[in-house]
Amino acid sequence: DGHIKRPSNNFILFRKIAHDQKNQTPALSDYNERQFSQIIGKIWKGLSQGEREEYKQLGKEVAEMHKKMFPKYKYQPKRDK
Fold first, then answer.
1. Is 14 exposed, middle or buried (0-12, 13-18, 19+ CB in 10 A)?
2. 1-63-47 Cα angle (round to 5)
3. Which residue ranges hold the DNA-binding region (predicted)?
């Protein structure tokens, strides 16, 4: 449909990385998505400022790549009618 998605924010990048690790770790495969999301949220809240800064930097890099790939992109949320 030609729709361009927004670049992922810091937490979403963190969650994607954690989800990839979950899929590669048999011990974590027992958790359903709801349980996993709750755990990831708690881990995110427990990260130090320095650890979060790494994801903030990653988020900036993703945003820059997105801007290069889609220079005319502008976030335009859809409004309910």
1. buried
2. 120
3. 4-74
Domain with 14, as residue range(s), is: 10-69
Q: How many domains is the chain built from?
A: 1
The span from the CA of 62 to the CA of 66, in Å, is 6
Token output for 76: 């335009």
In a domain, 74, yes or no: no
The Cα 50–Cα 72 span in angstroms is: 33
Q: Is residue 81 part of a domain?
A: no
Rg for the chain, CA atoms, rounded: 16
pLDDT tens digits, 6-36: 999 999 999 999 999 888 888 887 888 999 9
Please give the model's pTM, rounded to 2 decimal places. Answer: 0.81
Nearest alpha carbon to residue 33 among 23, 46, 24: 23
